[in-house]
């Protein structure tokens, strides 16, 4: 079966709104979402081929060699195995990234080469 890169996305506006919430409210989201995420991982363990992870701020090197802070909506990833892109996307329908946390979506992309697992 083919492999798919699933990229967790979060808009800067959604992240800012989450960070503007009182700490207790942020903690409540975490207290609900972290166990849900672990349960999602267990339910889909057979499809997860690389757990990936969450990532922080972006630094970009441009074609001209300039290195500078940059921004994008990418906040993490996981690699899954599925029959096709639609089946891979369906794995994330109930994912806490988009149902509990302020995630914007999960982008699904087939690997054209690799990955080396």
Fold blueprint:
Blueprint: E1 3-9, H1 12-20, H2 23-43, E2 48-54, E3 58-61, E4 67-70, E5 74-81, H3 85-90, H4 96-99, E6 105-110
What does this structure look like?
The protein has four helices and six strands; from the N terminus they run βααββββααβ. It has one domain: 2-Layer Sandwich (Alpha-Beta Plaits), CATH 3.30.70.1060. The protein has a four-stranded antiparallel sheet. A two-stranded antiparallel ribbon has the order 3-4. By secondary structure, it is an alpha+beta fold. The longest helix is centred in the first third of the chain and has 21 residues, at 23-43.
Give keywords:
117 residues, alpha+beta, Alpha-Beta Plaits, four-stranded antiparallel β-sheet, two-stranded antiparallel ribbon, 31% strand, flat
Poorly predicted spans: none
Span from first to last CA?
A: 14 Å
Average pLDDT level: 96
The number of domains is: 1
Provide the CATH superfamily.
Dimeric alpha+beta barrel
Can you tell me the CATH topology?
A: Alpha-Beta Plaits
> What's the architecture, going by CATH?
2-Layer Sandwich
Strand % is 25-35%
Give the beta-strand count: 6
Number of helices in the DSSP assignment: 4
CATH class: Alpha Beta
Structural class label:
alpha+beta
> How much is the radius of gyration in Å?
16 Å
> How would you sum up the major sheet?
4 strands, antiparallel
Give the strand order, joined by hyphens, for the main sheet.
2-5-1-6
H-E string: EHHEEEEHHE
What best-fitting shape do the alpha-carbon axes yield? flat
| Secondary structure: helix percent | 25-40%
């Amino acid at each position: 079966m083919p492999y798919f890169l699933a990229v967790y996305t979060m808009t800067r506006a959604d992240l800012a709104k989450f960070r503007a919430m009182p700490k207790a409210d942020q903690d409540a989201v975490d207290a609900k979402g972290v166990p849900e995420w672990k349960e999602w991982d267990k339910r889909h363990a057979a499809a997860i081929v690389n757990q990936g992870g969450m990532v922080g701020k972006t630094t970009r090197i441009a074609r001209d060699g300039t290195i500078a802070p940059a921004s994008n909506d990418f906040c993490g990833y996981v690699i899954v195995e599925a029959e096709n892109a639609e089946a891979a996307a369906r794995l994330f329908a109930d994912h806490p990234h988009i149902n509990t946390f302020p995630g914007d979506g999960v982008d699904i992309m087939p690997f054209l080469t690799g990955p080396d697992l």
